[in-house]
Amino acid sequence: MKLHIKYMVSMRCKNIVKAELQKLRLHFTSVDLGEVEILEHISKSTRSQLKVALKKNGLELMDDKKSILIERIKNAIVEVIHYSEDQLKVNFSEYLSQKLYYDYNYLSNLFTEVQGTTIENSLFSIK
Fold first, then answer.
1. Which domains does the chain have, with CATH numbers?
2. Which of 76, 83, 71 is nearest to 7 (CA)?
């Protein structure tokens, strides 16, 4: 089961999420920026406990599909700028489309609609 977590943009955040999952005895296969893959299906009660624990640490468990996609775009930007050792071999729009499996025009329009700014402006403001 995949969980999506907002504001998860650093190694510190990943470590916090791992610790909270372990406290709840949830087993994970991967913890990446904004996404966690857990082995179990979690109950509403456990999900609620996780939501509260994450919130105390400035993180947020997400359910809304648009919000999840926006956060995935932001995390892709952060990954490219801060965590990628290699230079992109394609332009960023193509990279984003390939990574997220959506047409770039759709991603761009959605991002602008929700964030009130373009992906490009976000890309340059994070640098």
1. 2-62 (3.30.70.100), 65-126 (no CATH)
2. 71
